[in-house]
Amino acid sequence: MSEESKNLKYVAKPETISSLASLYGLSRTTLRKNLKKLQLLPKLKNDGRYLFTIKEVQLIIEHLGEPEKA
Q1: Are 68 and 23 within 8 A, CB to CB?
Q2: Which residues have CB under 8 Å from 13's CB, separation 6+?
Q3: What's the pLDDT tens digit per position in 20-69?
Q4: Is residue 49 part of a domain?
Q5: N or C: which end of the chain has fewer CB within 10 A?
């Protein structure tokens, strides 16, 4: 594996709450609670949608940091 591939960061893409939770090594419930504590849930407006948009994923990353399992 080259040095360049080791330093790759997570590239935001549409994600479900489950896939984001697995990237952060959390359960869906824990991730949702963290988003609620950070007051991000009202900003995310994920009402009835299956995926978070790229902008929403970027907002989550901004507040929670880079996922460990990128």
Answers
A1: yes
A2: 54, 57
A3: 999 999 999 999 888 888 887 766 665 666 788 899 899 999 989 998 77
A4: yes
A5: N
The span from the CA of 25 to the CA of 16, in Å, is 14
| Structural domain includes residue 53 | yes
What's the rounded Cα separation, in Å, for the pair 16 and 50? 6
**Helices 28-37/17-24 angle, 10° precision:** 90
Nearest to 69 by CA among 27, 5, 13, 9: 9
- Domain membership of residue 19 as a residue range: 12-64
Asked if 31 and 24 count as a contact pair (C-beta separation under 8 A), the reply is: yes
Radius of gyration of the chain (CA): 13
Instruction: Give the side-chain half-sphere CA count within 13 A for 5.
Output: 2
